[in-house]
Design a protein that fits this description.
about 35% strand; two-stranded antiparallel ribbon; alpha+beta; globular; two-stranded antiparallel sheet; 4 strands; 1 helix
Length: about 70
């Protein structure tokens, strides 16, 4: 996916659903290796008792990207 297609995808998600989510894959030295756009309709956002937000993504096993 090119940078342009990635940005268009995020803007489209934002305009159609009101949010856009990205999974960030980091390397050993905390550098970004990959960015994956996530579907907004499969994301659940929760707030714990301490007020911290956490995110849960609902996906089927076959939808999980396989890393080599």
């Amino acid at each position: 996916m090119t940078s342009f297609v990635f940005r268009v995808t995020l803007i489209t998600h934002l305009l159609l659903s009101g949010n856009a989510y990205i999974q960030i894959i980091r390397g050993r030295r905390d550098g970004v290796i990959n960015l994956y756009p996530l579907l907004s309709n499969k994301m659940l956002v929760h707030c714990n008792v301490g007020g911290e937000l956490y995110y849960k993504y609902q996906c089927k096993t076959e939808e999980i990207p396989k890393f080599k």
